[in-house]
């Protein structure tokens, strides 16, 4: 059994090295936070970061709401389902916060609300191929055909 004890010691050392590395990252982040001296003492977050995050969220909100509740999303999902059915591809919609991601095999399409509108980002695997601004009052079938190859 000495071999097992030796193996357990090696695994324990690997776990400890990983924990030490994680602790070092946390300590460095805390030191950076304190050095900047811009903490909002009520929440612990940097004041500028909190204000910037809220500002962007308020700018994105109308576009995110239009994407989630408007007719464009329904038309796009219907068109993707029909094109996918013809090509025998399952299209899966996933909401990630305010982003709508459509997945069809290795292809992905993300509709990301931005302060200036909604951005369509095309992926093949994990590689971004293209991105374009879309108008939610346009024809969603054209976007579905562009993404799935009609």
Written overview of the protein:
The protein is α+β, with helices and mostly antiparallel strands and 150 residues long. It has two domains: 2-59, no CATH class; 62-148. It contains four helices and five strands. The longest helix is centred in the N-terminal third of the chain and has 35 residues, at 2-36. The chain is globular, with a radius of gyration of 23 Å. The chain starts with a helix and ends with a helix. Residues 1-16 have low confidence and may be disordered.
Q: How many domain modules? A: 2
Calculate the mean pLDDT score and round it. 78
Order of helices and strands: HHHEEEEEH
The coarse silhouette is globular
Largest sheet: 5 strands, antiparallel
Name the beta content range: 15-25%
**What is the rounded Rg?**
23 Å
What low-confidence regions span 5 or more consecutive residues with pLDDT below 50? 1-16
Strand order of the largest sheet: 1-2-3-4-5
Number of helices: 4
Q: First CA to last CA: what distance?
A: 63 Å
Helix/strand/pairing category: alpha+beta
């Amino acid at each position: 059994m000495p071999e097992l004890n030796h193996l357990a010691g090696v695994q324990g050392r690997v776990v400890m090295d990983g924990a030490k590395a994680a602790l070092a990252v946390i300590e460095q982040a805390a030191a950076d936070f304190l050095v900047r001296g811009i903490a909002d003492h009520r929440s612990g977050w940097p004041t500028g970061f909190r204000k910037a995050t809220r500002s962007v969220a308020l700018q994105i909100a109308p576009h995110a709401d239009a994407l989630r509740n408007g007719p464009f999303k329904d038309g796009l999902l219907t068109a993707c389902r029909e094109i996918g059915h013809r090509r025998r591809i399952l299209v899966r919609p996933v909401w990630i916060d305010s982003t709508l991601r459509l997945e069809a095999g290795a292809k992905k399409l993300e509709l990301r609300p931005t302060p200036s509108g909604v951005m369509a980002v095309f992926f093949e695997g994990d590689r971004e191929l293209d991105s374009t601004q879309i108008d939610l009052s346009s024809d969603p079938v054209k976007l579905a055909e562009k993404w799935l190859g009609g």
